[in-house]
Design brief:
The complex is a heterodimer.
Chain A lengths: L1 H27 L7 H17 L4 H27 L8 H23 L3 E3 L6 H9 L5 H23 L2 H11 L1 H6 L4 H27 L1 E3 L6 H16 L4 H24 L7 H24 L1
Helix pairs in contact in A: 1-6, 1-9, 1-10, 1-11, 2-3, 2-4, 2-9, 3-4, 3-9, 6-11, 7-9, 10-11, 10-12
Chain B lengths: L6 E10 L7 E11 L4 E6 L5 H9 L6 E6 L2 E2 L5 H4 L3 E4 L13 H9 L13 H12 L18 H13 L5 E5 L7 H18 L3 E5 L2 H6 L3 E6 L2 E7 H5 L3 H12 L12
Helix pairs in contact in B: 3-5, 5-6
The chains are: A mainly alpha, B alpha/beta.
């Protein structure tokens, strides 16, 4: 049982940066960004290639994140091209299309970067090995959880701080009332592109860390990232609430952990790993309908 | 004309859906000179082009032809957000002027930043909180004690008061009011209008106020413009405007449009 919990906690924390990225796009920017299915394996691919070529795992991780940021910037720029002059912020067509196009292109790009569909990292030094070396421990089990928790807290507060800076407020307002922000003299297009870059940097960080933790990067590891991301965001919001931005950033991390716990339990009770995507989709539907059902029940 | 201050429109024309069966000439070769500090009310029936005129000046869309000068600078082709550095706007919908899921102080702080470069400084600095609490108290809407409340918790009147404040706090060169009291109940509308008059006068703002309401148009501002079919059909100021009555306006409208008044109930509101 303990291994199930530590493993779910570890997985939840590995993927919580992706969840924070999805939260940034989906909630803060009101931009359902499908790029994440491509930017997660992009982070993994770039990191794996860098590590196998002898670069420091730290540098390899940063390179993965930078690649993710670039992917987000491209999606944002493509969106501007696709919406061409349309200033309505509720037109999701160009947003979805921009994400789909970059996600699709990234599949090829990831294969090109890796040169094959899978790069093993067994026996290579990862950031987890490096950190374990400092404290003379094996970064697995609870040590992994602790390490990732520290990183999570640092990045959570960094994002929290950023979202409350002048630019950060503009980012929040871009998703909340874009016309208002434009009439206050802000170029909302640039703000959105920047936000997508940051969000996909977070997603790529998860990809990079997952690859280093599981010991390989695989071109297919990004499939279903957006749905898993939404599952984490929505579960977190429903279970832990949304009273403020600072609070909800923790909520979605909690959602990420609960989601991985549910996955672990599902596998334990004998659900086939191949059925997990269907289960996740069903989970998102259930979690999305909870607020509605709750309202209905109260009314009765 | 471009060497003087204020707002100048020269041959401004906006055609929607050009060269199609749906072609509409919403604004038709309008020339208008607005002196700095002028408070102009703009009336007209639905489809007269008054909102299109405002949107053209604000830069919501490119105009078909003509030029717009603000403070002597040609702004005709500048994007909306660049013009917005010197133009404040309040919309008809009280929800349009504020970010609903952000707090009062966050909304306000964004308005103080109009025309400034945004960086990584704190979005709501402590010194600003004190300043905005004082200024909000002057609105008399009870907003100063609720700085951290989300704007979607406020009433329509409170939100519109905030929108008005946010549009004017950075001292814009031009204020555009687009039927900004039309969606409010009469009592709240009167409060917001009084507040508008006070702010415009105190700050000496150059203002264009579009309205359906002839009483408002006569009561406020120093100059009145009536639009019909994309053209200005009446332009009065000073004593001439003072002596104008609703009946005069209806007559004038009648004369110029040749339409039965009953077909335009909205003008009578």
């Amino acid at each position: 049982m303990e291994t199930v919990i530590t493993s779910a906690l570890g997985q939840g924390l590995l993927y919580c940066f992706m969840i924070l990225g999805v939260f940034m796009t989906f909630r803060v920017l009101d931009f359902p960004d499908l790029t994440v299915d491509g930017s997660l394996p992009l982070g993994a691919a770039v990191t794996a290639v860098a590590i196998t070529n002898g670069y420091s795992p730290w540098l390899a991780t940063i390179a993965g994140v930078v690649a993710g940021i670039l992917a987000g910037l491209i999606t944002g720029s493509l969106h501007l091209l696709l919406k061409s002059g349309d200033t309505s912020s509720t037109n999701y067509g160009p947003k979805l299309l921009a994400g789909i196009l970059v996600m699709t292109a990234l599949y090829t790009l990831n294969l090109r970067i890796m040169g094959r569909s899978n790069i093993p990292l067994l026996g290579k030094t990862t950031v987890f090995d490096e950190m374990g070396h400092w404290f003379s421990v094996n970064v697995t089990g609870w040590w992994l959880v602790l390490t990732l928790a520290v990183l999570m807290v640092i990045l959570k507060y960094a994002l929290d701080w950023f979202l409350h800076t002048e630019i950060g407020l503009a980012m929040q307002a871009t998703g909340d009332n874009e016309q208002m922000l434009r009439s206050l003299g802000v170029n909302t297009n640039i703000v959105r592109v920047m936000g997508l870059g940051i969000a996909n940097g977070f997603v790529a960080l998860s990809g990079s860390l997952v690859a280093q933790y599981q010991g390989f990067a695989d071109v297919g590891m990004g499939i279903g990232t957006i749905v898993a991301g939404l599952a984490g965001v929505i579960i977190g919001e429903v279970l832990f609430g949304t009273r403020s931005i600072s609070w909800v950033l923790f909520s979605v991390v909690g959602g990420s952990i609960v989601y991985r716990l549910l996955i672990a339990v599902s596998l334990r009770i004998g659900i086939a790993p191949t059925d997990l995507k269907l289960l996740t989709a069903a989970l998102v539907v259930v979690a999305l309908s909870i607020p509605t059902v709750r309202r209905k029940v109260i009314r009765i | 004309m471009s060497d003087t201050g204020g707002l100048s429109l020269q041959g401004l024309t906006k055609v929607f859906f050009p060269r199609t069966v749906n072609e509409v000439i919403a604004v038709n070769h309008i020339d208008l000179r607005v002196e700095p500090g002028d408070f102009i009310t703009v009336i007209g029936s639905n489809g007269s082009g008054k909102s299109t005129l405002l949107n053209s000046i604000a830069g919501n869309f490119p105009v078909t032809s003509g030029s717009i000068f603000l403070d002597g600078r040609d702004i005709t082709t500048l994007p909306e957000h660049v013009r917005a550095r010197s133009i404040g706007r309040v919309f008809q919908d009280p929800r349009a002027g504020t970010a609903p899921s952000m707090s009062i102080q966050e909304n306000m702080a964004m308005a103080y930043m109009r025309g400034h470069r945004r960086g990584l400084r704190a979005g709501v600095p402590a010194r600003l909180k004190r300043e905005m609490a004082q200024q909000l108290a002057a609105l008399g809407m009870g907003l100063e004690t609720r700085l951290t409340a989300h704007v979607n918790k406020l009433s329509g009147g409170q939100r519109q008061a905030m929108s008005l404040f946010m549009a004017t706090v950075s001292g814009p060169r031009l204020l555009l009011l687009d039927e900004h009291t039309a969606a409010l109940d009469p009592k709240v509308a009167a409060i917001i209008m009084a507040l508008t008059g006070k702010i415009v006068q105190e700050r000496g703002l150059t203002t264009l106020m579009v309205t359906h309401n002839m009483e408002l148009a006569l009561q406020w501002g120093g100059r009145l413009i009536m639009m019909h079919s994309g053209k200005i059909i009446l332009d009065v100021a000073g004593a001439q405007k003072e002596s104008l009555t609703v009946a005069d306006l209806i007559d004038k409208f009648h004369q110029c449009s040749g339409e039965r008044l009953t077909s335009d109930k909205l003008l009578l509101e």
